[in-house]
Fold this protein.
Amino acid sequence: MSDWTTLTGAMLQGSWLGPLMFLVLTNDLSAACQVHKFVDDTTLTEVLGVDQPSRIQDNLDDIVTQSAASLMNTNAKKTKEMRLRARARKQQYQDLTLEGNIIENVKSYKLLGIHVTESLKWDVHITVMLSKAFKHIHFLKQLRRVGVSTADLVTYCNSVIRSVLEYACPVWHSSLTTCRAVTANRETAETCISVHFWRR
């Protein structure tokens, strides 16, 4: 039986112990605001009333302190700030800082595969989604040219293309403008019609 030794490297990727240890280190992460955690992503959300001062900087500092106590680093370069507010509200807030660096304030941010904008409109998400679907449709045509069976084409369409077009649709579909909804539905319909034609 070998002697005990101290591991100085990271946890082996793919091991069953990796996710468990990560949960042990991050599961107790908390702040005086809403905290949403998904694997190694943590989102702090603060809802303010009119003329109410922000405490998000204090909450952010608290998260950094807790992370440091668990020997985990906070990536300042990947940390972003986005402010959702009514156009009429002109109240200004101080820039957030992390480890002495000012956090970038963005107008759009990709959160768990969904592109959220400060205006809560979905033009950016729809544009990205359709662009990604077009690439898959092009590959679908290439598969047809090389003689892939119709059943496999349908499987590819349903598992790859539809999954892109319908990803998280309960979140954004009800907020689409008529023009955007028609565009998205047309692309989906054209793809389905093409596959149906190939099946005949």
